[in-house]
Amino acid sequence: MGREPAKRLKPPKRRQRAITPRISRLRNSILPRVKAILRGSPCPALIERKAGTVAAHKLLAELDAKAGNQDAAIEHYRRVLEIDPRNAGSLNNLAYLLAEKTGQTDEALKYAEQAKEIAPASSEVDDTLGWVYYRKGNYPTAVKYLETATANSSAAVRKYQAVRKYHLAMAYVKAGDLKQGQQTLEAALNIDSKLPEAQEALKVFAEVEKRSR
Q: Which DSSP category does 184 fall into?
């Protein structure tokens, strides 16, 4: 009597994680927008579904900024402020984008000062305000705010600690304090030397050293 062939064991089925309706809705609303940004094409669906809401425009602004669509991010932050003029985070982010990406430093300063009035203890706002003054060429005032931002950055993630130190290092150098600038630059490089701000700071230092020869 022949042996009965051995039965092949089926691998156990993986248990599927339960997806709550809220997470599912969030995923379904964000993914089309992310894909559209990556393709470089507009995706009005999310705007149509949540038009006029602060949360929607803040989300779209953040996504556009990360994707490099600065003009679109700026427009969404403006829409937030039409709905909520005292939204400190959007005032701050709009000010930074205007100063950094468009060179509209006068308008940027207006928004940064408004953010400072609403959130006087925010190190993020101090960094933005200092950087706006830097872009305007007012380096002593830039140092004042950037020193405060850096001093209050202990709780910030390492990336933002480094960014603020790079900003301060550049402001020190432009204000004529090369020694403080070098020390601050070294501290920033020790935290994260791969940020775009690192290259910008090194370029500023190289230009200053070249002029001093």
A: H
- What is the chain's percent helix, strand, coil content, to nearest 5? 75, 0, 25
Q: What does the alpha-carbon distance between residue 192 and residue 93 come to, in Å, rounded to a whole number?
A: 22
Q: Which residue has the tokens 């020190």?
A: 172
pTM of the complete model: 0.75
Phi, psi of 111 (to 5 degrees): -70, -40
Residue entry with tokens 């950055």: 153
Question: What is the Cβ-side half-sphere exposure of residue 176, based on CA atoms within 13 angstroms?
Answer: 3
Domains of the chain: 113-213 (1.25.40.10)
3-state secondary structure of 85: coil
Residues 130-182 have pLDDT tens digits of 999 999 999 999 999 999 999 987 666 788 899 999 999 999 999 999 999 99
Whether the Cβ atoms of residue 135 and residue 103 lie closer than 8 Å to each other: yes
How many angstroms separate the CA atoms of 130 and 27, rounded? 37
